[in-house]
Amino acid sequence: MAQKMFKDLTPIVSMGNTDLFPVEQSDGTKKATFAQICEEIKLPDVAEQVGDFPELAEGDTLKVIAGKIIKWQQDAIEKIETYILKSSIIQEFPQEVDLEAEDDPGAEALKKQVISGLLAYTMNEKILQVISDHGTLAADYAILKREQIASYGYYGVEWDIDDLMTLVKAGKWDKFAVGDYFIETNTSGEKIQFEIAGKNSYLNCGDTALTVPHIVACPRDCLNTYYKYNSTNTNAGGYAASLMPANLETEANKFTSKLQGYMTTIRRLENNKGTWAWASRRIFLPGNPELVGFHGWADQYDGGAFNQLPLFAGGNAHILKGAGYNKGKAARMWYWTADPSAANTTYFCLFSDNGHSSAGSGASNDGGVAPFIVLS
After folding, report:
1. Predicted TM-score (pTM) above 0.70
2. What is the rounded CA–CA span in Å between residue 100 and residue 336?
3. Contact of 216 with 203, CB cutoff 8 Å
4. Residue 173, exposed/middle/buried by CB under 10 A (0-12, 13-18, 19+)?
5. How far is residue 321's CA from residue 318's CA, in Å, rounded to a whole number?
6. From CA 290, how far away is CA 78, in angstroms rounded?
7. Which run of H or E residues covers position 250?
8. Do residues 37 and 22 touch, judged by C-beta distance below 8 A?
9. Is the N or C terminus of the chain more exposed, i.e. has fewer CB atoms within 10 Å?
């Protein structure tokens, strides 16, 4: 029989797994079936290489959840890089593709790009799903971090008061942070930046318990108007007998009706110089313990709730104040607290403009005020 060159052979119509091919190897020419050749050149089944998303347990901390996600991402990326050429991830489709030809380079490139795109899409979908399922993990972490560093500086974000109070009423304490704020423009045109000093800080306090979800808010800086405790230098009768409750009501009456609608009257234990008594207040000066955690120069009848509010714990950024919105009236300003001085009969305690709790100033002196309000 006359020998023929491969190019002279009759083209086949179809191929079966047992059809034979000659294969030139280093130790001679050998035969291989069509099935063997297909097995050698086919792409790995990449879809099976990507493991299921890790199971997140209810008790997992943020650190544990983040670790599981990072590990899953690393594993998935490693498998993609193992089975898919990096160059094929570039989404540029070949201009000419012969899908019928098994060895067409364009078809091969297209196949790799489709697999790469599918893997990327699957990964993104799973990440988006877990973020949705677990309460927008990134946003929750940002709130947690903001609250943790609140006393170190001004890190809060601004809220619309209605949106904020919707969260408060629902008790969604993890959706906003201590140190966040809202801006009130009162009926006199004065702007006041109210910061969240505590969440549910007075829960169950009072001779009549406060049971509703609430926040405690205070101005970042003293109000524009300064006030005296009394017309003469006396602290007899303490807070309740002074001009201060009426002074602060004057300020509260200038607040917008919206803000006043959220203000809550609480039962407040007040320092009345050598004694104490319960009083109903919707706006009041903080006691020394609420600012600095101890009674300072006041006598043992400390007013307030006897706990330091979170905004003031760990740093003086929010204890030290100026006066006016954005410190427009004064960069640094001392301000009154709710306590008469234990050392004499003429002073009320104050927090100084240079960073310390003071034995006070004469009751007839005009001083800054940064009153607390409770919103529910």
Report:
1. no
2. 87
3. no
4. middle
5. 7
6. 54
7. helix 244-252
8. no
9. N
Rounded to a whole number of angstroms, the distance between the first and last alpha carbons of the chain is 103
Residue appearing with tokens 């307030």: 304
The structure tokens 């989404």 sit at 91
What DSSP string describes 102-159? TT-HHHHHHHHHHHHHHHHHHHHHHHHHHHHHTT-HHHHHHHHHHHHTGGGS----B-
Q: How far apart are CA 16 and CA 364, in angstroms?
A: 107
